[in-house]
Amino acid sequence: MCHLTRITKPTGEVAAWFDAVERLGGANLAAETYPGTPGLVIAEGELRAMTWGFPLVLKGAKGQPLKPKPVNNARDDKLGTAFWRESFVERRCLIPLTGWGEAEGARGRMTRTWLALPDAPLFAAAGMWRSSDEWGDCYTMVMTDSAGTDAASVHERMPVLLAPDDYACWTGGTPDAAFRLCRGWEGPLAIDRTNEPWAKAATAPAPPPPPVQPGLF
Fold first, then answer.
1. 3-class DSSP state for residue 11?
2. Is the pLDDT of residue 207 over 70?
3. Where are the beta strands (DSSP E) in the chain?
4. pLDDT (tens digit, 9 = 90+) per residue, 150-190?
5. CA–CA distance from 77 to each of 73, 80, 81, 106, 157 (Å)?
6. What is d(CA 204, CA 46) in angstroms, rounded to the nearest whole number?
7. Domains of the chain (ranges plus CATH)?
8. Residues in contact with 119: Cβ distance below 8 Å, sequence separation at least 6, in sequence order
9. Which residues, 6 or more positions from 85, have their beta carbon under 8 angstroms from its beta carbon?
């Protein structure tokens, strides 16, 4: 599952690429986005900054609420569940990217593998968004099975990537039409296996722990 994305283009170029109005409100965004940190989305025709991940509030052993965890990936086969249904039906968005990262290697020595569309300066993954009491507006990325795609050599799941001709269907089409777009990317992918450590520095936000209930989201 994807816990790291990057976008290396200026926000003005991103807005122009997606024919969106820039509405960032002075947000300070890093080139790399981790769950629980701000990232870029195209929602309702606007380029906005939102927190990556829907907040999941769990309870401790004594029933006390714990710090919310960002649920940053939504499985396509779970979009009809209560956690996702309303956002999928009413608030689908585009997530502009220049690449996404996966961890490969032995535990404690994992390195970053970057995946992207070759010769595409920008592309979009399918997302959903909503407002939250905890973090304000937030978004999640829709994931699908990577079997039969170039991404399968890296991870069994991948983001739902959208061709430009499908942007309008994802953001404004019927839920049934949008769901038909939830499939692995059939075209070639650029895969860059680097020697960069998965957690590059102590000051960098660390990826979250695995989901509390694997397969739920």
1. helix
2. no
3. 5-6, 21-22, 32-33, 38-43, 46-52, 54-56, 69-71, 73-75, 92-97, 99-104, 111-116, 123-132, 136-145, 157-159, 161-162, 190-197
4. 999 999 999 999 999 999 999 999 999 999 999 999 999 99
5. 12, 8, 9, 29, 12
6. 28
7. 5-57+65-197 (3.90.1680.10)
8. none
9. 79
What letters, b where the CB count within 10 A reaches 16 and e where it falls short, cover 114-146?
Answer: bbbbeeeebbbbbbbbbebeebebbbbbbbbbb
pTM score above 0.85: yes
Mean pLDDT of all residues in 69-74: 96
24 CB-side CA count, 13 A: 16
What digits encode the pLDDT tens for the residues 32-63? 999 999 999 999 999 999 999 999 988 888 87
Nearest to 116 by CA among 7, 1, 3, 9: 7
SS3 label, residue 189: coil
Residue entry with tokens 């020595």 = 109
